[in-house]
Amino acid sequence: MSKRRLVITAVVVEDRTQGEVARAYGVSQGWVSHLVARYRAEGQAAFEPRSRRPKTSPTALAPDTVDLIVRIRKELTEQGPDAGPETIAWHLQHHHHPRVPRATTGRHLTAHGLAVPAPGKRPRSSCIRFQTELPNKT
After folding, report:
1. How far is CA 115 from CA 41, 74, 84, in A?
2. Pseudo-torsion of CA 43, 45, 46, 49, nearest 10°?
């Protein structure tokens, strides 16, 4: 049984106070209050966590621009020259006027299955660095 279900049941069915339930289960009283209010508004849906995904993404590319990236990739592939993200970004900027970064272009090509991501270099954080100890100034 999930903690959400236990908390809601303790308050709604057992008629315990929200403060008492919060102390008993080691959670904040605000969270208990939030869960109970959600249960009263939505019913059984309150037992499951909500998605944390944002409802909108204001910096996302317009679907028309993504379609244009895919179309340019297919046209360049048929013609034979380089059809990589950098070339597509150049064509977008000079022929169609939206300015799209190379990395964004590559990400959309990968998402549409038109490019296979190549593994990059090892991240710097994974390298072992030897640090020399500095003498203490005493």
Report:
1. 46, 11, 9
2. 180
51-96 pLDDT, tens digit per residue, is: 999 999 888 899 999 999 999 999 999 998 788 899 999 999 999 8
Element (H, E) at 112: none
What letter would DSSP give residue 59? T
Full DSSP string of 16-50 = --HHHHHHHHT--HHHHHHHHHHHHHHGGGGGSPP
d(CA 95, CA 122): 36
Lookup: tokens for 18: 């929200």
67, 114 Cβ separation under 8 angstroms: no
From CA 72, how far away is CA 14, in angstroms rounded? 63
Q: Is this structure's pTM higher than 0.85? A: no
Cβ-in-10-Å burial (0-12, 13-18, 19+) of 20 comes to: middle
